[in-house]
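Today's session is about reading a structure prediction critically. Students often jump straight to the picture, but the first step is always the sequence itself: look for stretches that repeat, for charged clusters, for runs of hydrophobic residues. Only then move on to the predicted structure, which in these notes is written as discrete structure tokens rather than atom positions. Here is the chain we will use throughout the hour.
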Amino acid sequence: MQIRRVLAATSAAVIAATGLVACSSDSSDSASGDSESSEQDGPIRVGTTDAAKKAWAVLEEQAEAAGLDIEIENFADYSTPNQALEQGQLDTNNFQHLKFLAEYNVGNDSDLTPIVATEIIPLALFWKDHDSLDGIEGESIAIPNDPSNQGRAINVLVQADLITLKEEGLVTPTPADIDTEASKVQITPVDAAQTPSAYGEGTPAIINNSFLDRAGIDPNLAVFQDDPNSPEAEPYINAFVVRAEDADNETIKKLAELWHSPEVQAAVDEDAKGTSVQVERTQEELQEILDRLEEAERNS
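Below is the predicted structure for this chain, in token form.
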């Protein structure tokens, strides 16, 4: 059994310039094959943005024990794993939540499909040298400025009773939806990668879990986080995703379901320092959530 890990740290600009080339000459056959087939021609090529995490090494071990040949490819940004999947460079990816996928599908006229849920990573507010929200009124809070995470970050502050919206219940509020007169704090949207720097300078900041890890910030230092078990959290369920024609590929599903093995989950918990919440939803439930999010995205 052969397991290959390819660390493709190529930037989006380079990939866009050179094109996404399939890893093997068999990719076109795999992409156009019978969706009902459980056969997999060649290794299962899996894309992610955090291949260095322990969970991926453990997944490799579990895949080998299950008789699956896999190849893990790491990408340096959040756009190219879906592009690579669409163009046949990958067979599946696992790096995104359903909200991000809905935005990608609508924006690119795509039909990428979730097959197995993985986890929800709570989004949290951090404030250097503070262990509560006491005294935060009047502060300006740094939040990620990308559309997918900005709305969620604003809702974190709504749940913390720091921000009031002009209209309640918005899934993806924008800064324009904030009632500034009724709110207790202001927000400063910045690039997600800059939120740890803002935190380091003493500014309260909402920081994505992946950037916490890179900046060496303990996620347990959060002064507030959203509730991963609430209905409002459904858009942020992470999942293994495939092309629509592979939605019934039993070999890929078998690999994806290994993510819920005790061994992989122990590694996920270690990687996330106990903040990850395992999610098990059926493929049909995931698709229903995605359909709802895509409709909302089209109407926005």
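Discussion point for the tutorial: The CA atoms of residues 111 and 130 lie 44 Å apart.
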